[in-house]
Amino acid sequence: MKSLAALLRQGGMPLPYATSSPLEIVEIDLTPPGPGEVLVKIESAGICHSDLSVVNGSRQRPLPLIAGHESAGVVLELGAGVKGLKVGDHVTSVFLPSCGLCSECTSGTPAFCSVGATSNARGEMIGGGTRISFNGAPVQHYNGVSCYSQYAVLDERSLIKLPDDIPFDIAALFGCALLTGIGAVRNSAHAKPGQSLGVWGLGGVGLSALIGAVISKASPIFAIDPVASKRKLALELGADFALDPHENLRDHLPAGVLVAIECAGRADTLKAAYEATSRGGTTVTVGLPPASEMLSISALSLVADVKTIRGSYLGSANPRVDIPEFVDFWRAGKLPVEKLLTSVSPMSQVNEAMDALHGAQVVRQVIHPH
């Protein structure tokens, strides 16, 4: 099957991307879905910092690849043995497929699936190999999704069925931004009502974490970001304080926050979040900084202040449990996803969208492949 898609041949090309065009719109070939696989018409795809980190070269992945890992669409065709979906179903993608058989999956932590993580690192489907080619040469998948494309072949384990009445631009954010941000608060930090909480970095994931804090009834809630418009939005979403990073959180809460969520993907921001964490508190990091960045903290403080640092990937979530709950929150008006959408653009403007994300003035952008 033919599909227009955004092909990345080389990371680290110069800014602005609107000029250097690292993501090239080309016509690819897709093989039909194999056993356990699904052909999806991609209706909406989110622009996430994880995609930017591959484009700018700070996160290495096998190239060439078709980018994109946050999407929503419609099932067009089923491979043999697919039981949980049918043609016409609306779906959102999850960027870490879970095999269901490894020790992580069988222990109830599919977000830690070692099989899915290995296939993602190889640029392959979880079932092995690639279903994408360009001019006869194989092209790698990105996190098993590759949704900057009109159509995509995904493993059934990378898809979650959603109700048909959720707009695609909203549904696209369920599988990454919301899952990662809300999951960091609820599944990783286990935030409880009345606990003080801070969020560092107010992009799509960070503001989702803020929403998760509001849902969890944390109090007070601090939102920290250098961009004034994001701080303003954070207050609208329920933050009690919105601070510039140069402000001292402890001027407002001398003991510091019991829960700190770092979403900026920078080692210096993680250090700031840790230092603003109270005695006995927990710092959760979801950002993906360049591998070269090192974290330097007082080793003594971990013991003397009884602190915890925890990494959170995919929000430490079980997507098949968490995403249906997010749907309920959205229907109840507790999940104002619409406020996270900065813009909607055609896929032909994907490089401009990457420029906007690099400029840090946007929250979540969505592109339409068709």
From TrEMBL:
<dbReference type="GO" id="GO:0005829">
    <property type="term" value="C:cytosol"/>
</dbReference>
<dbReference type="InterPro" id="IPR013149">
    <property type="entry name" value="ADH-like_C"/>
</dbReference>
<feature type="domain" description="Enoyl reductase (ER)">
    <location>
        <begin position="18"/>
        <end position="367"/>
    </location>
</feature>
<dbReference type="InterPro" id="IPR002328">
    <property type="entry name" value="ADH_Zn_CS"/>
</dbReference>
<dbReference type="GO" id="GO:0008270">
    <property type="term" value="F:zinc ion binding"/>
</dbReference>
<dbReference type="GO" id="GO:0051903">
    <property type="term" value="F:S-(hydroxymethyl)glutathione dehydrogenase [NAD(P)+] activity"/>
</dbReference>
<dbReference type="InterPro" id="IPR036291">
    <property type="entry name" value="NAD(P)-bd_dom_sf"/>
</dbReference>
<keyword id="KW-0560">Oxidoreductase</keyword>
<keyword id="KW-0520">NAD</keyword>
<protein>
    <submittedName>
        <fullName>Unannotated protein</fullName>
    </submittedName>
</protein>
<dbReference type="InterPro" id="IPR013154">
    <property type="entry name" value="ADH-like_N"/>
</dbReference>
<dbReference type="Pfam" id="PF08240">
    <property type="entry name" value="ADH_N"/>
</dbReference>
<dbReference type="Pfam" id="PF00107">
    <property type="entry name" value="ADH_zinc_N"/>
</dbReference>
<dbReference type="GO" id="GO:0046294">
    <property type="term" value="P:formaldehyde catabolic process"/>
</dbReference>
<dbReference type="InterPro" id="IPR020843">
    <property type="entry name" value="ER"/>
</dbReference>
<dbReference type="InterPro" id="IPR011032">
    <property type="entry name" value="GroES-like_sf"/>
</dbReference>
<keyword id="KW-0862">Zinc</keyword>
<keyword id="KW-0479">Metal-binding</keyword>
